[in-house]
């Protein structure tokens, strides 16, 4: 599927991709390839943060052997992160993308703070999806989404840059309005955009309807239509089904946050889609 033209994405000037090395064998993802393709299409600068999660233990004479093992593992992880940064730089050079890389080795709180700080300097951060609730990468997604003040694109495995058909999940909220606004470079590049409201999930009587919001996007040059969908099962599953029916390449939505305990028992649309989305999610809080 062809990439969007550079002119349609020219408002995107800075992209950030974060790769995290936790020492496992399943670190490969799609975010870097997606970021490189998008940077090439937009003529944007790409920053790649290839980070190593540094393990720590309590120091002490009795822990000498453990400290030695942990130090060795931390060196291995840092070497893998540095190799990842070097590969990213080489791939960027091959694609004609201007790229800055770094490979910090940090304990979790510092790693998260570094990423959030970098995300505030970018137009868009791109991360790989993470289906597991309890995982470093999932915490990084939450941190960027709710602490950076910038949009986040979460990419499932195997997705190339394509913005031909986009769905906006619309409930009239401030989060949904901001998500649609921040996604305008993608929306203007699309062949078709559909603003979707899920009817029957909550009271939308005091909110602007999808049909009322669509003309605003049309004035920005977006090829847009509106659709009200009855909820079937739950909102997340209704959206997944419609994504497949519409042939969407991306879902744009505002993100809401509950406590981890509430999400575990009650669910939530953001939580459910982060765990299993058929397309990249453009998220804004």
TrEMBL record:
Belongs to the universal stress protein A family. Residues 164-285 form the UspA domain. InterPro entries: Universal_stress_UspA, UspA. It holds the Pfam family Usp. CDD domains: USP-like. It comes from Methylobacterium adhaesivum. It comes from the Bacteria. This is Universal stress protein.
């Amino acid at each position: 599927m062809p990439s969007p033209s550079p002119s349609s994405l020219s408002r995107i000037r800075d992209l950030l991709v974060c790769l995290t090395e936790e020492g496992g064998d399943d670190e490969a993802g799609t975010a870097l390839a997606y970021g490189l393709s998008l940077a090439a299409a937009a003529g944007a600068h790409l920053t790649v943060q290839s980070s190593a999660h540094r393990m720590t233990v309590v120091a002490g004479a009795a822990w000498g052997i453990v400290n030695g093992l942990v130090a060795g593992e931390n060196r291995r992880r840092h070497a893998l992160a540095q190799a990842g940064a070097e590969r990213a730089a080489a791939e960027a050079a091959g694609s004609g993308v201007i790229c800055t890389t770094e490979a910090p080795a940090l304990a979790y709180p510092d790693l998260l703070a570094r990423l959030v700080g970098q995300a505030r300097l970018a137009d868009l951060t791109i991360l790989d999806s993470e289906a597991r609730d309890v995982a470093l990468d999932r915490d990084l997604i939450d941190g960027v989404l709710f602490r950076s003040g910038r949009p986040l694109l979460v990419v499932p495995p195997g997705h190339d840059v394509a913005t031909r058909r986009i769905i906006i999940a619309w409930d009239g909220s401030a989060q949904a309005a901001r998500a649609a606004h921040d996604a305008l470079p993608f929306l203007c590049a699309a062949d078709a955009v559909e603003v979707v409201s899920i009817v029957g999930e909550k009271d939308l009587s005091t909110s602007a309807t999808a049909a009322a919001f669509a003309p605003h996007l049309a004035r920005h040059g977006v090829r847009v239509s509106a659709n009200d969908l009855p909820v079937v099962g739950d909102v997340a599953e209704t959206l997944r089904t419609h994504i497949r029916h519409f042939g969407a390449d991306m879902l744009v939505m505002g993100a809401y946050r509950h406590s981890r305990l509430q999400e575990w028992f009650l669910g939530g649309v953001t939580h459910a889609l982060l765990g299993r989305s058929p397309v990249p999610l453009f998220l804004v809080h």
